[in-house]
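Sequence, please.
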C-alpha cells in the first residue's frame, strides 16, 4: 500500500509563514524522537522554513519521548535555556498539551510572550484560552482512502508495486487566537 496523508511540506511552510507574518522571529519545533515518516517530513519542512525566514539564527528543535512522563519538565527546561524562542510549532496535539502545561508554569502569556501552533486540530483546541491555531488534517478522508487501498491490496487488485501510489491530501490552517495579530 502506498502512503496516504497530507502534504506536510506545504502545510508546514504555510504554518511557519503564518507565525513569521504575525511577528514571531524564533520558532521552535517540538517532535517525538521517532522514525515516523510524517514527523520526519514536518521536521525537514520546519528547518527549511526557519532557515528561509531567519537564516542568521539557530534552529531550535526539541525531541521528546512519546510516553515521557517528564515531557512538561523537559519542555520547560528547553524554553528556559532558549529564551529567544518566541513561538512553538508542535508536532501533534499531545505535544501541544505538554507545551501548554510548560508555558503556563513558566507564566508566559499566549500569544503575547509565546505563540503556539499545532498539528492536529483537537476538539479541545477551541476550549482553551486562547484557542489554539492548528493544522487540520482530513482524517476521515485519510482513513477512508487508506482502508479502501488496503482492502484492494488484500483482494489482490493491486498486484505490482508500481501500481501503488502515494495519496497526498491538503491540510488546512485553522486560525485562532494563539498567535498575534498580523504585523506585516
Amino acid at each position: 500500500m502506498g502512503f496516504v496523508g497530507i502534504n506536510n511540506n506545504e502545510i508546514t511552510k504555510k504554518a511557519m509563514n503564518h507565525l513569521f507574518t504575525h511577528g514571531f522571529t524564533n520558532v521552535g519545533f517540538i517532535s517525538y524522537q521517532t522514525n515516523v515518516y510524517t514527523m520526519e517530513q514536518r521536521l525537514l519542512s520546519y528547518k527549511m522554513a526557519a532557515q528561509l525566514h531567519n537564516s542568521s539564527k539557530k534552529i531550535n528543535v526539541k525531541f521528546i519521548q512519546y510516553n515521557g512522563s517528564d515531557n512538561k519538565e523537559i519542555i520547560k527546561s528547553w524554553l528556559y535555556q532558549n529564551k529567544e524562542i518566541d513561538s512553538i510549532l508542535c508536532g501533534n496535539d499531545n505535544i501541544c498539551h505538554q507545551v501548554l502545561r510548560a508555558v503556563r508554569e513558566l507564566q508566559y502569556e499566549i500569544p503575547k510572550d509565546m505563540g503556539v501552533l499545532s498539528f492536529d486540530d483537537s476538539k479541545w483546541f477551541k476550549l482553551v484560552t486562547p484557542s489554539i491555531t492548528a493544522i487540520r488534517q482530513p482524517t476521515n478522508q485519510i482513513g477512508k482512502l487508506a482502508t479502501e487501498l488496503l482492502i484492494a491490496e488484500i483482494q489482490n487488485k493491486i498486484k505490482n508495486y508500481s501500481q501503488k501510489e502515494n495519496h497526498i491530501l491538503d491540510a488546512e490552517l485553522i486560525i485562532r487566537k494563539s498567535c498575534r495579530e498580523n504585523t506585516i
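The chain has a mean pLDDT of 89.
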